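Model: Ready when you are.
Researcher: Fold this.
Model:
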Amino acid sequence: MLINVSNIYKYFNGAALLRDINLTVENHETIGLIGSNGCGKTTLLNIITGQEEFDKTTNGLGSVDIANNINIGYLHQNSGLETTSTIREEMLKAFSNLLSIKEKMKQLEAVMSQETGDKQQSASEEYARLSAFFEARDGYRIDVKIQQILNGMGFSDTPDDRIISSLSGGEKTRLALAKLLLEEPDLLILDEPTNHLDFTTLMWLEDYLKSYKGSILIVSHDRYFLNKLCTRICEIENGKLITYKGNYSAYLLQKEMNSQRQLKEFEMQQKEISKLEDYIVRNKTRASTAKMAKSRQHALDRIDRVEKPVMYTKPPKINLTYDIEPTKDILQVFSCPVCVGSGNERKTLINSLDMHIRRGEHAAIIGPNGIGKTSILKMIQELIPHDSGNIIWGGNVKLSYFDQEHAVLNQNDTVIESVSNKFPSMSETEIRKALGSVLITGEDVFKPVSVLSGGERAKLCFCLMALNKGNVLVLDEPTNHIDLNTKEVLEEALAEFEGTIILVSHDRYLLNKVSNRIIEVTENNVTTYKGNFDRYSEQKMLERKEKEALLSAEKRKQDEENYKAKKQNQYRTRQQRALDAARRNRINQLEKEIEQLEANISTLEQDILLPEVSANFELMTEKCTQLEELRNLLDEKMNEWAELEQ
């Protein structure tokens, strides 16, 4: 056990933010800490790390116990870095202890070369001890580790001598996370780590954290991220913390079951309490029954009250249907550049876009920030012009468009006018019923659109979209600004929609549940992947591994050619030739061992993707351990091979 939090309370202005919090963090587990905004998640992290005091109970209970000699790394939502340092200088701080030992080893080398006798012996023994410690902690791979983490966190094209003060806020957050990963603490605490990360970096981070040797405590609203990593979910609700085994999907199922069970217990107990209270009221004033009434009062006072469960608030209803069947080929885009702006400020985002959407497909368009995904949706609807190429829609296509900026709404209209202006044949009763399905009721229907929250505007757009009965839904970031209940309802409605969907979103949980085709857009390429986001992630990982293997093979081949060219004109003595022969034999042996290790690693990576393995926690742990051992062994072999080649 790394940490044990027991009977923790925290009050603000006399009100309890946290009540009787109990939490243990064991070795080698990943915990997701969730809850609504302001529920106390960050406060609890600050209490665990000693940055904030907690309040004890009246009888003095309350403690945070941390195991001896463990390191805790904490990534705040706004982590600070030394802004005057370069990127490399800041990353090297993660290895300050090892670098200090390296410097001491250099000093000992000088002593051993200059001194004799006992001083030399003492220095030699100290050097051997430090050298073993340095090597055991991968001290000779510091530069490799730094480059690996920086590349993974999206800094591959950023010079490592760049001053941190010149980075953007998002880049500083990513760099702070990179530094924390290099420190490899026993317990890694991450508060909203997925902010400012694109898909590529997110996928790398998930892959890295899945094989992390220590324990992880994560606060995140990214449901996909929690689903991929967590072995336990802890939710703070109404000040209390409840623990659920498994990932986010398992949490949803368990919470629903627990809430239904607790509700039944609550209702049964309320009936019993009501009977007792009724008996007491009717009999406490009568002399003949007063004693019995008093006895019932004692029984009532002793009842251990079951709290009414916090049930999900009433969710909206989103019913997406259509009444016209379109042709098989919904949309065809031929050689269209995607451009924004006008005149001298017109800018090309994508040189040439080709896309083919068929009836019934749920296609998600993804790509880097700023690549032009929203512009694609506007261009295919002719809301913005295209300079060349063709856009062809099929017959009987009826579009329903969800704009992330809600531009389809007139800010001067009231809510009820927004519906009646688009559907003039609907009566006020019908309009109120439609708005009520998305939880816009009562006097709220007369609010101007301009005063609605982002979530309320989104719900109004969903209402209009459902009433329009489009057979093709074009959706731009539909889950922005909406609460979890509405997200889940929308995801279910979209997943069950039998028509065609063209979707842009950063919500990977939504992409995974709704899409059956992923279209990845880059500046010079459009690539299609069949399946949902999980399937896309698997294929991207395989592509990355194949590319790394190819580059590794090419590098070995180039190194061999360079070696041969270098040695061709060199005179070699018999002893040199013998040493070279032995070295070549060892190199050949190492290359065979490396090839076999890479094959074994590839097999294990494929095994980990199998459903029967991912569903078995113990088997998954065993496979991941084997994979880590093989990767470490491969690194050793590669280092030896590189030294021999040099």
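Researcher: Now this one.
Model:
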Amino acid sequence: MELINRELSWLAFNERVLQEAMDTKVPVVERMRFLGIYSNNLDEFFRVRVANIRRIIGVQKKQIAGFSGTPTELYNEIRKTVMKQQLKFESTYQQLLSELEKHSIFHVDDTNCSGTMLAELSNYFNTKLKHAIVPIILEKSTPFPRLKDSSIYLAVRMLSENKKTVKFALIKIPSEFPRFYRIKEGEKEYVLLLDDIIRLHLKNIFSIFTFDTVEAYTFKFTRDAELNLDDDLAFTLIEKIEKSLKQRKKGKPVRFVYDEKMPKDLLDHLLKSLNLKFGINTIPGGKYHNFKDFMSFPSFEHPEFLYPAQPPVNHPDLEGQKSLIKTILAKDVLLHFPYQRFDYVVDVLREAAIDPKVTFIKINVYRVAAHSQIMNALMSAVLNGKNVTVVLELQARFDEENNVFWANNLRENGAKVIYGVQDLKVHSKLMQITRVSNRQEQLITYVGTGNFNEKTALIYSDISLLTANIAISREVKKVFRLLENNLDRGIFKELIVSPFNTRRKFNALIDQEIAFAKKDLPASIRIKINNLTDPKLIDKLYEASQAGVKIQMIIRGICGLVPGVKGMSENIKVISLVDRYLEHARFFIFRNNGNPIYYISSADWMERNLDKRIEVACPIVDPKIQFEIDTVFNYQWKGSVKVREIRKDLKNTYRRPKAKPFHAQVELYNYYKNKANQD
């Protein structure tokens, strides 16, 4: 079976993000922010995937999926690919600085500030910044300090005029200060990085020394982010998570990115102190690192530097209703973020919190905002006497600390908090409100593809169903029973629930299309997911293609399937859409001989989602909502702007418009806007 390697496919996805930064049609500050997204993505990739490869080097000598060489050779291929992308990254950054200069906005550094600027920066340094800086002198007699992952450091080199005396030091760039500092002089505006303000004052910081030259070079490094939870029964899960988070901060470095102009003696000293080897863990770069901060690059009050405003629109079924719950009891409602407002989800919870007929609220949470309106609404419900159960996944990678915070907060306020299921991450996106009216139980149910996070709902494209459908709601109730009592599995006929019946159900649905194709009946499958890596499902899709089933897939990220190969996958086409919004919705449409079957899902088709997580796919039975899902897929499949064709060569070839260009995300926004105005 032919596969594309997971890691190399992911790097191709991240290059699609980099392409957005390179695209001159994208507004200039948005391009700068895409550089930040690219950088942040790459940091996480090294912390997780590359760290995993480093762990298996020396242990596993055999070939790995989709790659003809050893883990060591794959690691070298990853490094080579990243280095090529880094050159594009640096070139793009310089182009963007030139573009800003056309608008009288100039980037300056510690070498070319005017006298007026220096006076302002000196005042800023002395009154605000100075006391946040903690210089560390690197002496042979003292241990090398434990550095923080994801932070930026200045490696300082102090040199006497005769070059016989040299001293090294470190400065962590304070994260509590904005990375960018703006200065206006007449019609011109200037921007500096915090790094350079510190560089300007190095002699001030190290004033007790008499060195002639004091220079600083940026570097950062990335640690292995794996959490190792021990089996000590004396500790609760939350205590194990807190302990493991501390251990993560001591994880082995897997990448060291540094200013390529750093002197060799300073570089050698850092690598030796960090127990790293040149050329294996090291990646040379430019003067500045931690470009994830560029996700917050200022817009300089220039509207044309940003995407045109697309505020989320009203949902015609929910807007202006006195009771959202009664509306949902009467009809199913589909929400599509960020085109439509996420506020409705918070409003449903807020209404439930004060509705005297509501008795229970249950929700499972994977990631929430730091200042979460969802969590505040749940605490309001507790204070109003509702029984609130929150299944909170403590092991949501890089959100563990935020989830521990909310777990403690909720528990202290009286909510029942459950920390997931043993050995399984809870990745489903479910909420259920129990209401008793005229002695009859009413279940108001939410099933989504994305997190209960009002912040990411502005940039992540997700869909969610609000329903009182009895069959669906009763099975969601079973899922919550499972989450509360690990022994109570339940039987699911409506829902597809990992790790219990997902493989069997999806295999059966694909087999059904194969059977239709073999009878010369029209057969097709349309899939929209983020990642496809599961070998067994890929093999099943190959089988379907060979039987004549037409398969269209929109996959944002990793795609292990090789499309368009004669005799294997010639009936499979795959595209990827990377644009203003992060495509995150997951849904499936099976033609079913003219009576299509629709599911929305929290799960990608990866081994972990199928076998090692609680995931829920929910059927869509309302014809109007089915039509809406068809519309979303049709618009994106028709797209000829920001759409790349996925091929084995991983070249991210843009789909070229045959006629008038069709910009799917823009057209979808207009679709929802018109829908809101018409209804």
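Researcher: Key takeaway?
Model: Confidence is low (pLDDT under 50) at residues 227-235, 244-249.
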